[in-house]
Amino acid sequence: MKLFYSTTSPYTRIVRIALMEKGVEPIQHLTDPWKDDPGLLAANPSARVPTLLLDDGRALTESLLIIQWLEITYPGRSLLGTDPAAALSQAGIAFGAIDAAAAIIIGRRMTDAGFDQSPVGLRRRRSIIEAVKRLETQLPSEHVETPTIATIASVVLIDYLHFRFPRAEWLPSTANLDRLSERHRLRPSFETTLPCDMPVA
Ligand SMILES: N[C@@H](CCC(=O)N[C@@H](CS)C(=O)NCC(=O)O)C(=O)O
């Protein structure tokens, strides 16, 4: 198996954490999706990461579909915890905010930093604020054995927000999410996948 990944993508980080927690070790292929790597483009017409190329040549794309495949194929260490509806419900809140944060970053690529103050930019910012407020008062329950998709998505969200919006005065308190992230940094799956700028080619 081969995973196309970038060091900045929150979607990729979710999949990388899930793969490591499941004990699945594909070859890791670092790529900048914006540079149209031919191998990535052949595997995924959208040329996006994460893309997981299976040994039989089929490609899995879209982080949540990859997670679904992982959960079915490697059911041993479930990412759904003891209350799957709770885990999925909370993961959805974190995913919504990840989508909103990624939309702001892409919006800046399309226009400039002025996108943040546009009606769509402010709406995406509101999504982040409301999701963070909700997760702060209602942290996902923690499982010693394997983190749930809710915990993975929440930690990926908060680390991505600090990475992309380091001095954002509009962010509400993230103290509880920060502590959740710090606790999980003890796990290699979280620690080795922290977001960072792509190496210069
Ligand atoms: N819905 C997709 C989103 C994937 C995505 O947007 N990946 C970004 C990196 S964070 C990407 O590859 N962007 C390149 C592009 O949009 O052309 C998922 O969940 O995997």
Overview features:
Glutaredoxin, globular, Glutathione S-transferase Yfyf (Class Pi), Chain A, domain 2, 4-stranded mixed sheet, binds glutathione, 201 residues, alpha+beta, 2 domains
Counted beta strands: 4
* Low-pLDDT stretches: none
Which outline best applies?
A: globular
Q: Over all CA atoms, what is the radius of gyration?
A: 17 Å
Mean pLDDT: 95
Helix/strand structural class: alpha+beta
The CATH architecture of the largest domain can be given as Up-down Bundle
Alpha carbon gap, first and last residue: 24 Å
What sequence of helices (H) and strands (E) makes up the elements?
Answer: EHEHEEHHHHHH
Sequence of strands across the biggest β-sheet: 2-1-3-4
Largest sheet: 4 strands, mixed
Which range does the strand content fall in?
5-15%
The share of residues in helices is 40-55%
Q: In total, how many domains does the architecture comprise?
A: 2
At the fold tier of CATH, the topology name of the largest domain is Glutathione S-transferase Yfyf (Class Pi), Chain A, domain 2
Ligands bound, unique: glutathione
Provide a count of the helices: 8
CATH class of the largest domain: Mainly Alpha
